[in-house]
Design brief:
This protein is of the alpha/beta class. The chain is built from six helices and nine strands; from the N terminus they run H-E-E-E-E-H-E-E-H-E-H-E-H-E-H. Strand 3 and strand 4 form a beta hairpin. Bound molecules: hypoxanthine (HPA).
């Protein structure tokens, strides 16, 4: 049986045979935030289902493909559709694409998501720069045998989101006139939206927002030695803070509304990236 390293290398070989490009940065697009792909140029696509060993996407509103293209002349790999732990994937499957990106030679990763706001200075539509995370998923992708070819047994996690990159993102936002918040993202297992009591306790822990993704990919990327920037789109206030019940449709709708600002911001950030 192939080990994970061999599987990832087989996926990478397949992608390389199909597409002769060298992306400098990868972007994971959250629910309703897929529009970035619309502003990419010279696009080439690969469906997840065609890539050997790649997991497959199951959630409505999540497309499953890798999109290679340019943004402002920079080669970008966008992941349209991600894998969530709540879908029943293992943490290794959830993060498999990040391992693949790294072995494609990508060292920078921008992660976006849709999430619930806990910090009451936020409102639906706020874009939050993620400063740090709290892993409440009860699992993580690094459990089990460690293959040193990927990264160290005990990786440092003191700067999961690259400070320099956060500072740059703030400068770009100011230049573009894009408003944003900043805060700590808690990763909750899902798929149910948290209870009001859970939100109170997660807020006391220090989280400003809560969602069901991002944390596994951020852990894996740091382990692999990649630099990560995280931008969360607050699509609703978390349970007990907002008065109405949650709906996935509303989450996607709000994310879509915020998407044009997010796209502009990400484009600006990529354009000013040190390669
Ligand atoms: N909680 C968890 N995940 C989410 C939420 C939320 O309120 N909104 C969008 N994703």
């Amino acid at each position: 049986m192939m080990n994970m390293y061999e599987k990832v290398m087989e996926s990478v070989d397949y992608i390389r045979r199909k597409i002769d490009r060298n992306p400098q940065v990868a972007v994971i697009l959250g629910s309703g935030l897929g529009n970035l792909v619309d502003i990419m140029e010279n696009k080439e696509y690969i469906s997840y289902e065609d890539i050997p060993n790649f997991p497959r996407s199951t959630v409505a509103g999540h497309e499953g493909k890798l999109v290679f293209g340019n943004l402002r002349g920079i080669e970008v790999l966008a992941m349209q559709g991600r894998f969530h732990y709540y879908e029943g994937y293992s943490m290794k499957e959830v993060t498999y694409p990040v391992y693949t990106m790294k072995k494609l030679g990508i060292n920078k990763l921008i992660i976006t998501n849709a999430c619930g706001g806990i910090n009451t200075s936020f409102s639906p539509g706020t874009l939050m720069l993620i400063k740090d995370f709290i892993n409440l998923m009860g699992d993580n992708p690094l459990i089990g045998h460690n293959d040193e070819r990927f990264g160290p047994r005990f990786p440092d996690m003191s700067e999961p989101f690259k400070l320099e990159w956060i500072e740059k993102a703030k400068r770009i936002a100011a230049q573009l006139g894009i408003g944003y918040g900043e805060g700590i993202y808690a990763g909750f297992m899902g798929p149910y939206y948290e209870t009001a009591a859970e939100i109170v306790s997660i807020g006391r822990m220090g989280a400003d927002a809560v969602g069901m993704s991002t944390v596994p990919e951020t852990i894996a990327a740091n382990y692999l030695g990649m630099e990560v920037l995280g931008i969360a789109c607050i699509t609703n206030m978390a349970t007990g803070i907002q008065k109405v019940k949650h709906s996935h449709e509303r989450v996607v709708e709000t994310a879509q509304k915020a998407s044009s600002n997010l796209c502009k911001w990400v484009e600006g950030i990529i354009e000013s990236m040190d390669l």
